[in-house]
Amino acid sequence: DAKTTQPTSMDCAEGRAANLPCNHSTISGNEYVYWYRQIHSQGPQYIIHGLKNNETNEMASLIITEDRKSSTLILPHATLRDTAVYYCIVRGYDRGSTLGRLYFGRGTQLTVWP
Amino acid sequence: DAGITQSPRHKVTETGTPVTLRCHQTENHRYMYWYRQDPGHGLRLIHYSYGVKDTDKGEVSDGYSVSRSKTEDFLLTLESATSSQTSVYFCAISRDRVSPLHFGNGTRLTVT
Q1: Does B100 contact A at CB distance below 8 Å?
Q2: Residue B3 pLDDT > 90, yes or no?
């Protein structure tokens, strides 16, 4: 059970911001939200993660709603090289069933067009 | 990427033969993972390791075994390959159980 819901596909014009939504309404208090992306035939690439505060790094920003039931990944200036499948994942750290493992869903195919 | 090497990158084998895939890391990370990726299923965890000789099953472990005799190497073995094990296999590592996972570039396995 991936525990997240994402749109199957999205488009974005090059140079514009890409906003990728994710619903995780059953997230529990100790679970983080992670984002990865995968370019065809390559391994998934880590982008960013957060618990409840908004996060920003050199690749993207992560906005998590106050109730933590949804989040948005923002690529501020999308380029053609950002075309990929983007995965939103929740990850827990309790000992036992998860131990930090990631469960991937089907992700969102983002296509950036010129 | 991230000091992870998977070998071989491509392999074709026949049903019933044993196959071993290797994941080698140069990061000295404690955790290592094996995933498989199939159309319509995304990535699914097969096995993972949280230290030398410490391993545990993932969600699709049947038909697979793993070994970790050194920190840097995590082997995935298909004792008797089946056509349903045709897939792309990804290895991942993480420094500890709370750090992000970083993935290798995969092994494409075809079982005929």
Answers
A1: yes
A2: yes
